[in-house]
Each structure stands twice: as C-alpha cells, then as structure tokens.
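Agenda item 2: alpha-D-glucopyranose complex prediction
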Amino acid sequence: MQYGYFDDNAREYVITRPDTPYPWINYLGSEDFYGLFSNTSGGYCFYRDARLLRLTRYRYNNVPTDAGGRYFYIRDGGHAGGDIWTPSWMPMKSALDRYECRHGMGYSRISSARNGLAFSQTSFVPLKDNCEIHKIVLTNESNADKDVDIFSFIEFCLWNANDDMTNFQRNFSIGEVEVEADGARIYHKTEYRERRNHYALWAVNVPVAGFDTDRQTFLGLYNGFDHPETVFAGKANNSVASGWAPIGSHHIKAHLKPGESKALVFVLGYCENPDDKKWEKPGVINKAPANALLDKYGSPESADKALAVLKEYWDALLGRFSVDAEDKRMARMAGVWNQYQCMVTFNMSRSASYFESGIGRGMGFRDSNQDLLGFVHLVPERARARILDIAATQFPDGSAYHQYQPLTKRGNNEVGSGFNDDPLWLICGVSAYIKETGDFGILNEKVPFDNKDELADSLFAHLKRSFDYTVTHTGPHGLPLIGRADWNDCLNLNCFSKTPGESFQTTANFESGVAESVLIAAIFVFTGPDYVEICRRTGREEEAEYAVKAIASMTETIKAHGWDGNWFLRAYDAYGHKIGSNECEDGQIFIESNGFAVMAGIGLDDGRAKKALDSVRERLDTKYGIVLQQPAYREYHLELGEVSSYPPGYKENAGIFCHNNPWVTIAETKLGRGTRAFETYTKICPAYREDDSDLRRLEPYVYAQMVAGKDAQCFGEAKNSWLTGTAAWTFVSISQYILGVRPVFDGLLIDPCIPASMKGFSVIRHFQNAVYRITVDNSAGVEKGVKSLTLDGKPLNGTVLPALGDGRTHEVKVVMG
Ligand code: GLC
Ligand code: GLC
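Presented output:
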C-alpha cells in the first residue's frame, strides 16, 4: 500500500495520510542550523551539533512514537465549547477532513482542514540564518464567522542533549526564560547567566493574548501532549518557568470571516552574543541578534521570499546532475532524492536521524570519505574543506582516528583507531575530488597529522602513508591485517569479548597479527590505480612504479589466498581459519569481498569475477536485495565478534546491508551485465517499493541502511533510513556505472551499462565549468558498448569528454551498439 506519491515537478514527496508506518521525516537546514521534521510536525532542531547545542527536546524510543515537535493547537470556537484539534494530526491524533504533508528540498508543508477551517504550516530553515521559520495560514472555508484560538507549543532542550536526558538533579533547577512583547517573544536562556553566550528564541509576528513557558502549567502534570489543560481551558496562564521544564507557547486569537485567511510567522532561532555584549542590563539578555532575525522574518511576505531563495539554491544544486528517462522511478531517485540524501549525509554524517540520537557518534573517517563520493559534484568547495578536516585526523603512521568530532574537528579518543580499512578511504575520497574538479593543487595543502600542526605535511604525503599502511600491515598470507575491523564494523576478529554490554567497537583489542581481510586487499586494488595516476600526473614516476608493483602483488595474493573455488573469501580469523568459505558451517559466503574484488577488476581475466558474482546471485540474492552473508550465524562466535551477535537476518548478520549492494551493481557493470546491474539497483531502491510501504515501513524517498534479510521474521522491513553510506554508493552506481557518466582524470567518461530493454535516457551534467547535455540512444538494445559519440555534432575520438571549462552548454549524442 502507498501512503503518498512523488510530485516530480515540485520535487516533493506528498504524504496523503498522517499515520505512515513509521514517522516519515525531512531535514530542514543546509549549513549550521538544522531541524528534523516529521510528517506530523514531530522532531527537533539544533545549531551545528545535535548533542551539544540542541534547541528543542526530543524523546527517542518514546510512547507513542514521535511525540514532541513544533505543535499548533487549534480551538475553533464556532462549536459549543470549541472544537480542539491539532492540524498536524499528532499529538492529538485528530480526525481531519483533509491532510497532506509535502516534503520538499529543505522545507516541508503540512496542510489540513477540519470543520471548515483550513490550516497550512510551511516549515524551513532559511539560507544563512540560524532559525526555523514556520509560516501558518488559517482559512475559514465555512459560511459563518469563526473565532479561533491558536496555541503554539515547543519544549526547550537544555542544550546538551545527553545531559538533558540524564542529569535531572541539576536540570530541574536551572531552567530560565525571559518574555517580551506581552509574550509574543519568548527567550530560553538556561545557563546564559554563567558560561553560555547563546539563547533560543520562539516568537510570533503578531500580538498575543497570552503565553506560557512552564510545561506543567501548560499541560497539567499528568497529561500528555495530546491533552494540554491550557488549550482545553481556552486561556493561557502567562506562566514564567523557573526550573523544571521550560517551554514556549503563544496564545493567539483570530476572527475569520467566511473565506478570510490569516497568516502568522513563527521563528524558532539560535542567537549568540560576544562575551562582552551578553547583557542589555543586569539579568536581561541582549536581544540584538534576536531582533535582527525578527526584523528580517517579521511578515508572511518575507518568509515567502526566503523560501523562494531556498528553492533557487536547490534548483541550482540539483541542476548539476539530472536525468530524464522512461523509468520515472529511476529518474527521480538518481536526479533528485538520492542526491538530496547525499547532501543530508554530508551535513549530518551519522549524527541525527530518527535512528541516530544525535548524541552518539562523531563523524566517521571511512564514512565521511565515502559520503563524499555522493556530493562532490554538488559542492566541490565544501568537499575540499571536508577532505582537509578528515586528513588532519590521520596518524603519522597512516592509520586514523576512526571518528572525529564535528565541532572541534579533532579525532575522537574514545573510539581510537585500528580499523585497518580507514586509510584507504582517504585515497578514494581524494581521487574522487580530483577527478571531479581537476584540482591537483589540493595535494600540496599542508595538513596536520593527529591534529598537530607541528606534524603537518602535504596532503600527498597523507595519501602515501595511507597506501603504505596497507603495504606494511600484512599477515601470514600477505593479506592486509584487519585490526579492529574493516568496512564491516562487526567483523571483530581480534576482540574476543565476553563481557555483557561491552562495545565491540571500542573495547580493548589485541593485535593477533594473524587476522586478515580480503576486503581490505580488494579496496587496495580498487583504489590503488588512482593513487598511481595521481603520482604520474604529479611527476612522481618512481612512486608510481612502486605502487604498481604493490598492487600487482596484492592481486596475486588475493588470487592465491583469497579465492575459495567459487567466490572470494572474506577473511582469516585470529587462528588463521577461513571466514566466508564453503569450509565454514555458517558465514560461507560474504557480499563485500566479492563485490569489491570484481569492482577492482580481479578475476575479469580468468572467469573468477563471473563465478563470484554468479555465486552471490545464487546464494545471497533475495527479492529485496542481497544479504550480507549466508548462512547467517546462529550462535555467538567469540572469534568473530559483533557480526555473530545479531539475531539472524539483522544488520551485519545476514541483513540486506544496503551500503554494499551497489558494489555488486558496479561489479556487474564490469562484466557488462546491464540487466543484472539494474536489477540489483532497483531491489534496494526505495521508490520501487513505494506500494509496499506497509512492509518496508520507512520513507519511500530515501535509502535505509538495512532491510531485514530472509532469515529475519520481518523479511523486507527497513530500518535506519537517511544516514547511511548507501546514499553515496547507490548514487555512484547509478550515475557513474549504469548511466555511465563517470568523472575520470582526463574528463568525463561515457560508459553506460543498462538493461537491453532500456531504449535510452538523457543526462544533464555540470562538470568543471561546462554543461554537457548527454543523450544516449540504445535502440540497438545492447547492455554495454558505445558505437558512436559526437560532441557538439563532431565525432569524438574515444569516449572521454574533455573538460571544456568554457561555461557553455555542449550537446553529446551517444549511440550504443
Ligand atoms: C555502519 C557504519 C560504517 C560501517 C557499516 C558496516 O554503516 O557507519 O562505517 O562500514 O556500518 O559495518
Ligand atoms: C554497530 C552497528 C554497525 C555500526 C557500528 C558503528 O556495530 O551494527 O552497523 O557500523 O555499530 O558504531
């Protein structure tokens, strides 16, 4: 069953009923201020860091789910006693005559109606300002006059979200607010009296009848958000919070004639003052930054204008890569939603979603490098800055902090290092950046090691140490040592954890010097050639020769010790036993090493690549995607770690861990099997499962990290949407390998690999200051192969479009055959 539809012209997903199988959310914000916003107006917002600077409170794992957000209660006085309802459905679960939620690019709009009163709420974060705008429009659609009371409601978080949820002995005594303009302007200033120099603002642009800032007064101690005493009483109490739980609520009265509308603008903002300008007078905060925001967004027209500017921003961004094809699901995912999700993973990393609490992880070294593959074509300058931040957390020996903190940009000591795949992802990220931009200059940037300036060296030196780290950390078979784990965080082969609750990721680890990873070897062979090219193109011929030899030798090692007869092995454990072999009882075949080895081109020459992918298909494929391994581990294995801790079918234990499915897609294109490549693409692509939303449960417009595998009770159910490396890799697979528009060091390679039944498609691609309008004709019905290619009407020698950089638009006609 479907709960909505795609409005492709508006680039919106339109949710048509509020009771979606899970909250379906959107992200507001593009630089420093962000809001998570669900289809029932749930969620919260923060400035820069979801843990340390959270403005509004949100309770994860709450009952009912998704309670708390920016709420508006309506008391429609036209009925006896007033008809009280919440137009976003939650929190009162009001029966609505109409409901629709449109999630667009950086904004959402909820529209609903009941008893002749229409409501719309447009919510977004304007570019460059640190606030959420909620523009409300009420319209009297009935034939009689209406007297309407509107109560706004938000609950303030006491900034540090972790502390907010735990430290009640302190927190119940520190909450402070200030109120101005008879209550139209509410300021949350907890801890401002001491070391904070920022406060939050919740304001409305019209006069109010009253306000509340104390939660208990507004709701009643034993009430939920669905029964606020104040709204039922029809009158605000003008409560001023002192300790306990500060909230912000405005009471506004409106008289509406038939057909009349009233618009209100609410601003939920973050304001900061310099230390010496904190106070207006003793005890009174300096409102200058708040006033500036409110002057700017003081009218419905100014809100509309800001939204128009935001739309232009997204039009320009997504205009950099767009697709037109008969298959609308593919076109909208590749051209719009997949890229949108890539921008969200760029902004959020793995911090704040409805599955990531915003107080846990920092930014991952490996995650951030991979995320970059999905947004480097959109915001290359920001990708450049990101690369330099990431590289600064590398250690002098080439290894890296596994995570770093977004606010400080420093490596995270709590998690430490030792994930031996990490260094190679830096080569992968930097290569993608250079191919996209041609900016070899980045290699000369001086970048610290271990965040220490005195250890700074060129970015190129960082790449060399990444490369060398793999070369010098090999085990008994000559394969790379796995360390704490490789890409599969849960393959903890040196962990041997027996203590309940101990984190597999951070617990004391020993280095067996034996446990090896075939996946790291394959990543090395995949990304190594880019390192070679970088060396050659910067005059480092000797280094290039050395790297070529190392890659060739690793390839031989994989063939000798990483092949199981019908597929690639996954690893060797700390005893030197095989993992991912037909000799194993469970976990006989894994997806990652097979996808990556073929992506790296290993076995294309001797039939092993085909054999490996056929084995993957035969043993791991399901109708909802490819599971991570089979058979699922049925018992906990001390020597394997977290992978065997999950019940069969979930997460890394034979779940469909979507991130690695596109590796198989790309691998299939290496074999030229376009139909199969497209099949693996569509199986995990959310738009293709839109009418199966009851089972899949999560948003049909974004990828999820995991879909439960065939061993699980809820085979096909998705979890952990939005913040996943799946976004970047699926975008790479569809844009670069299926549609085949791929940046290479010499320009833009055109190399489509599509189903024989796909008659053609077109792509508009901005690349290094020129625009390429690429039309691909596959009336020949082949899966791969370019018969002819013209650039601006002239036949081109080869299939690489040169970077013309002339700011003009160029026509590219491609005929497959
Ligand atoms: C999570 C992690 C990622 C890891 C993957 C597989 O998505 O963020 O770093 O590679 O799980 O374990
Ligand atoms: C857990 C998850 C894994 C994730 C890791 C990162 O092990 O299963 O997917 O990568 O945590 O902290």
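Discussion summary: The first strand starts at residue 4 and ends at 7.
Owner for follow-up: CH.
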